[in-house]
Amino acid sequence: MIEADETFVGGKEKNKHRSKRTGGKQGGAGKAIVLGMLERDGELRTGATRNLSARDIQGTVRANVEPGSLVLTGEHTSFQGLAKDFNHQTVNHSAGEYVRKFYIHTNGIESVWALFKRQIVGTHHYLSRKHLSRYLGEMT
Asked: Are 70 and 1 within 8 A, CB to CB?
């Protein structure tokens, strides 16, 4: 069972000085995108990605996950199409669904993101995009 999810890494506009705010940063605009895959009771793999295109996201999943595996994701459009190579199950967070049938959920990988973001706030305070993969490597 593999849980896959994406997150955005970057500061909040409300924390910037008023003169530095650019606006239009809702939904991850201007932030770094990170993709993670967590094998339950197994390995964690993370990495920065250029965008959330289906080609990039699915290519990364296909390169790291054995065909035929159970892949659990949210319903983001970049994950649609994984059913060709995997047993792909989704949860619909926007409809308030966070777990189905007791085992279909992405809570593990989302906990990884919570810990990573807590690491940023508590230890590093700032991340540069140039070294994002190093911070992810330290966490994984």
From this structure: yes
Q: Domain residues for 109? A: 2-139
83-134 pLDDT, tens digit per residue, is: 999 999 999 988 998 898 988 999 999 999 999 999 888 887 778 888 889 9
Contact 14, 38 (CB under 8 A): no
Could you tell me which of 91, 137, 51, 112 has the C-alpha nearest to residue 59?
A: 51
Give me the CATH number covering residue 130.
Answer: 3.30.420
Q: 13 and 22 in contact (C-beta within 8 Å)?
A: yes
Query: How far apart, in whole angstroms, are the C-alpha atoms of residue 86 and residue 104?
Result: 14
Q: What is the number of domains present in the chain?
A: 1
Instruction: Identify the residue whose tokens are 């993370």.
Output: 46
Q: Which of 90, 97, 56, 61 lies closest to 74 in space, CA to CA?
A: 90
Instruction: Please state the φ and ψ torsions of residue 65, each to the nearest 5 degrees.
Output: -120, 135
Helices (H) and strands (E) in the chain, counts: 3, 5
In this prediction the pTM is 0.86
